[in-house]
Specification:
403 residues; alpha+beta; 2 domains; two-stranded antiparallel sheet; 14 helices; 58% helix; elongated
Length: 403
Amino acid sequence: MNDIKNKFELSEKNVFEELFELIEKHRLDYSKNFPLDNFYNVIDSFDKSIQKFNSENKSQVNVKVLNNILESTFTNFLVIFRAKGFNNEPIFYAFKRFVAFFSFVINEVDLHKNPEDIKRTFFENFPSLRVNISHFNKESQNYYLGIKGYREKAEKVVKFEDFFSFEIGVDLDIVGPKRQLVVYANDFIAKFVEWNEEKSSYVVIHQKYYMFVDIVVDSEEQSAEQMLRTAWLLTSALESIQNVSVKLENIAKGSLKLKLRVWIDDLVAKEETKAVLETMKETVVKTVSSGQVSYTDIKNARIERKQKDLENKKLELDLNQSPSDIEINFVRAIEMEKKVLENEKLEIENVHAKLDVIERLSDLASKGVIDADMVRIDINSILYILKDKDQISNIGPDISEIS
């Protein structure tokens, strides 16, 4: 934890200490007539939030990832503010918003299943943050002081100012709609947020489920028709699900490599997507192994092991409960079961229709996998299934564990 506490050192100073010094310097400079308003309080509150986060967060991986991002991004902003101070310019307001955005993300970080989502949250919204301008201190200072010959050397700093202000939406407030930023949150939910001037914070506008699917298809004869057909069948099956859209993130040649982002509008669509993928996996495993291996049996065995663990834990809890506690829980269980049965009765007609759709789409996807020489599917960076020639080389975890 001491490593974390000392994480934000820039030269010999903590980045927050240097910001506070720059704020105090601005206040004491009577030639500066630009009021900072609540800027000090914003930074002070954020500093305390970070300290609390570092001391209480359970995932040290998430702590490390977030602190690395904080160190690199704040270093960039300090280069600008050291060189020209705080002024009535887009970059000042952009930085204040960035602090508010960072605070929003902190509240989500402990819930992340995948640390990569933290990086994705920052660098997809703000590609300019990938550029390191920390070594341009002298050049930027001389440029902003009006010394000739430094414009070209300080060009990266100037571009960073312009690009970041645009990315966070400061320049859009007058000429266009508000910019929505995406926060990849817990349980694979993407929260779309907008800046609220009255609250001086980001608010959630809407949210979607998401899934990253990597598909690798290969053919012994490098048949373009076979590889593209497999990819088309798999993507078509997913995109045919109601309220699901599939976006192509990247494509590479040689073996056909596709990176897809699947956007899912609601929980029903998410469950249907999972059902299509699980049914596809069962069909592929059964067909390729000529019925000798059943993914359902493998899945049930995994479930049984987990169920036994849960039963043992529940037994321990029950032994520690008083008779009154057990009686209350029993009544609650009966009431919940009653509600479940009522809901099932109301939805029984829709279930049959949904099952037909799931079966049809899973058959479509299965055909694409079975007909290919080699197919590997990863979901959210975890191997889901690998078929190589006439055998299943690897069967990944249940879809519910990785999405």
